[in-house]
């Protein structure tokens, strides 16, 4: 198999992974985890194996493990050509509402009737400034 063929296969697998992740929802927010911006990274090796790095919208989210399990199962069921799937939870990197995809933003606008992401961005930026000010004060 040539390098180009392998690249095409990886792109196809990545597309299938994204489609699978779009079937997984955060139970508290009616938007799938991909369009919500919780998928931080998708790596596919030559074997092919997949490593997915997921974040959470809030520290201490009570359904974090459930979401990770559902993501792994969705990928295993929908991308059978993968030899292995690893889902890593990234609890260190804060989720930023700017990660929401355009599709996710449209879905949220339909649900709430206004651009809730813009409101989240304002609140996120305010919270970040407060955290930075608190760190400087110590």
CATH superfamily annotation of the largest domain: Fe-S cluster assembly (FSCA)
The geometry reads as globular
Our count of domains comes out at 2
State the assembly state of the protein chains.
Answer: single chain
CATH architecture of the largest domain: 2-Layer Sandwich
Main-sheet strand order equals: 3-4-5
Number of extended strands: 5
Number of continuous helical runs: 4
CATH class category of the largest domain: Alpha Beta
DSSP helix fraction? 40-55%
Strand proportion, as a percent range, falls in: 15-25%
Largest pleated sheet: 3 strands, mixed
Q: Tell me the series of helices and strands, N- to C-terminal.
A: HEEEEHEHH
Terminal-residue CA separation: 57 Å
Radius of gyration: 17 Å
What structural class results from the helix and strand content? alpha+beta
């Amino acid at each position: 198999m040539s390098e180009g063929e392998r690249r095409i296969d990886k792109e196809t697998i990545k597309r299938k992974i994204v489609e699978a992740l779009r079937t997984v929802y955060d139970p508290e927010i009616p938007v799938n985890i991909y369009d919500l911006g919780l998928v931080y990274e998708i790596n596919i090796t030559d074997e092919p194996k997949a490593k997915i790095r997921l974040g959470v919208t809030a520290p201490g989210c009570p359904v974090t493990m459930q979401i990770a399990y559902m993501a792994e199962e969705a990928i295993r069921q929908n991308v059978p050509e993968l030899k292995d799937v690893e889902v890593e939870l990234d609890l260190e990197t804060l989720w930023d509402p700017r990660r929401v995809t355009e599709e996710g933003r449209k879905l949220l606008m339909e649900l709430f009737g206004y651009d809730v992401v813009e409101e989240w961005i304002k609140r996120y930026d305010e919270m970040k400034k407060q955290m930075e000010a608190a760190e400087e004060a110590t």
